[in-house]
């Protein structure tokens, strides 16, 4: 299976250093983290994007996704109230509404950036461009067995509305928006509430961050069942659950409690059902947030060993 990794695992590294790490590990694509101080950042010029794309293409490295920090469910007070009280279904908003919605404007900018950085994908056998987004409602996830609050449901609707509003431009540029199992919506159960309100024609799929549904007690089989029609790829990491909490202490892949081989098999089964025999395996190593962790090269080696790649 093709291997990728997120540049979250090598904060501050130059593009040349990241390419060298990819070549040494056998990785053939990257999740490019867009953040200030990195070689990928919001607001890059067309010339800067073209140069990064050229260097990656020359190195035989594709862009699996632009890892943006857009939070599509971030609640605006007026929008949240309207979404919570309206009985009408969420509809596709016009792109002009981005002038009144900074989150939508940020999403559209991320779509443009993903398209510009992924030009070289066509020559490397990757399909189009992808941009990762977070739910990011700023709310606690719903507890198992409980109904979502009106505020969470408003966030669901708002996230769907923004994804619908960005869909036309994303289609024009060949970009798929990837909603990650994360933060306020860590389980597939949570993500499904948003997807149920996204237009069927919108280019929206899901990244299964393997850790978050697991640490919020959603069985991998259930996650896979709910993502069977929407999975783009899985993000791999490992850790030990801290007793009595949903928090996790990160470990090298294979040294924690996540059933990574089982999860890999479930993700591969979904891909196979859609005609993809060789799905991506992407490592998300959180060294940007946890500098005490070993280098990403060590984590890549551990992941390959744990999955017998």
TrEMBL record:
In this chain the Xylose isomerase-like TIM barrel domain maps to: 20-304
Record bears the keyword Protein transport: no
Presence of keyword Metal-binding: no
UniProt entry keywords in alphabetical sequence = Carbohydrate metabolism
Q: Which Pfam families match?
A: AP_endonuc_2 (PF01261)
Fetch the SUPFAM superfamilies from UniProt. Xylose isomerase-like
Query: Which segment of the chain is annotated as a signal peptide?
Result: none
InterPro entries assigned: IolE/XylAMocC-like, Xyl_isomerase-like_sf, Xyl_isomerase-like_TIM-brl
Q: What is this protein called?
A: Xylose isomerase-like TIM barrel domain-containing protein
User: Lineage of this protein's species?
Assistant: Bacteria, Bacillati, Actinomycetota, Actinomycetes, Micrococcales
């Amino acid at each position: 299976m093709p291997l990728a990794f997120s540049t979250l695992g090598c904060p501050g590294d130059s593009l040349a250093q990241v390419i060298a790490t990819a070549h040494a590990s056998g990785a053939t694509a990257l999740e490019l983290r867009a953040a200030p101080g990195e070689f990928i950042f919001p607001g890059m010029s067309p010339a800067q994007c073209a140069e990064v794309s050229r260097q990656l293409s020359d190195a035989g490295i594709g862009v699996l996704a632009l890892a943006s920090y857009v939070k599509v469910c971030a609640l605006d007070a007026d929008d949240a109230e309207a979404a919570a009280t309206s009985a009408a279904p969420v509809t596709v908003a016009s792109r002009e509404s981005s002038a009144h919605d900074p989150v939508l404007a940020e999403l559209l900018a991320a779509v443009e950036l993903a398209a510009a950085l992924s030009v070289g994908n066509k020559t490397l056998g990757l399909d189009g461009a992808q941009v990762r987004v977070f739910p990011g409602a700023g709310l606690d996830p719903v507890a198992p067995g409980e109904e979502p609050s009106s505020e969470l449901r408003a966030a669901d609707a708002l996230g769907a509305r923004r994804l619908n509003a960005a869909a036309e431009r994303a289609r024009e540029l060949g970009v798929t928006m990837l909603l990650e199992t994360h933060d306020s919506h860590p389980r597939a159960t949570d993500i499904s509430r948003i997807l149920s309100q996204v237009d069927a024609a919108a280019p929206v799929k899901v990244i299964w961050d393997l850790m978050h549904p697991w640490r919020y007690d959603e069985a991998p089989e259930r996650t896979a069942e709910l993502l069977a029609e929407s999975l783009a790829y899985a993000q791999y990491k490992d850790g030990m659950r801290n007793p009595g909490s949903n928090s996790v202490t990160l470990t090298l892949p294979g040294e924690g409690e996540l059933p990574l081989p089982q999860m890999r098999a479930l993700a591969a089964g979904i891909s196979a059902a859609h005609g993809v025999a060789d799905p991506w395996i992407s490592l998300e190593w959180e060294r940007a947030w946890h500098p005490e962790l070993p280098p990403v090269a060590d984590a890549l080696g551990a992941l390959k060993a744990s999955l017998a790649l």
